[in-house]
Design a protein that fits this description.
- The chain has 205 residues and is mainly alpha-helical.
- It contains 11 helices and no strands.
């Protein structure tokens, strides 16, 4: 058999990163290289021709997962052009849905990878990418008033962090209690509270 072409090698690498991004969210980063390559339809031996280590793949897969989240948010903003609250409400509705709860592989990396990232070294690339992604997600959920002053901005950022903590915590708890009535109650309660908060004037405005 001839050598793999550069184009095929790049396609194989892309396939492994995409597969890892899904499986790490579904099963955790402890998944073995052998299982990852099998799921990618490639041989175990080809892994180290593409990646220096499993840690390097975790770094890339984490970045890929957050890039997907960014694209999803951008698409939501485009669908609700000029209507930031409507875009955020749609994001909250989709995030706190039974479908998202039941499909972590295609869902939010902030929730799915939280436990794994807590075990990563503080100076790891995966932890850096994760932290940056969480910050960007919080910013997407933050208030953004046209008349805000510079000294009011921290309050808006805090709003985003509170909303992110609420939706992420609710999703994690709903997954952990799946199969009981409490699971959907958690989703419904968090969704209602967050959407009510979007519609009510901020106390700092």
């Amino acid at each position: 058999m001839g050598r793999v072409s550069q184009q095929q090698a790049e396609e194989n690498r892309r396939r492994v990163v995409e597969t890892a991004a899904r499986l790490f969210r579904e099963k955790g980063t402890h998944l073995s290289v052998a299982d990852l390559m099998k799921a990618s339809g490639l041989t175990h031996g080809g892994f180290y021709k593409q990646f220096a280590s499993k840690d390097a793949l975790i770094d890339e897969a984490t970045a890929h997962a957050f890039a997907e989240l960014t694209q999803l948010h951008a698409a939501g903003l485009e669908r609700h052009a000029g209507q930031r609250d409507e875009a955020r409400q749609a994001l909250i509705d989709n995030y706190l849905s039974v479908e998202h709860r039941d499909n972590p592989a295609d869902g939010c990396p902030a929730a799915a990878l939280a436990a794994d990232m807590a075990r990563e070294p503080a100076d790891s690339e995966a932890r850096r990418v994760y932290t940056e992604g969480v910050g960007d997600f919080a910013a997407a959920l933050a208030d953004e008033r046209a008349d805000e002053k510079a000294d009011e901005k921290p309050d808006d950022e805090a709003d985003g962090l509170v909303r992110l903590s609420t939706i992420l915590g609710a999703l994690v708890l709903s997954r952990a209690t799946k199969g009981s009535p409490l699971s959907e109650e958690i989703l419904d309660s968090a969704r209602a509270a967050l959407i009510r908060g979007l519609r009510e004037p901020s106390s700092s405005s």
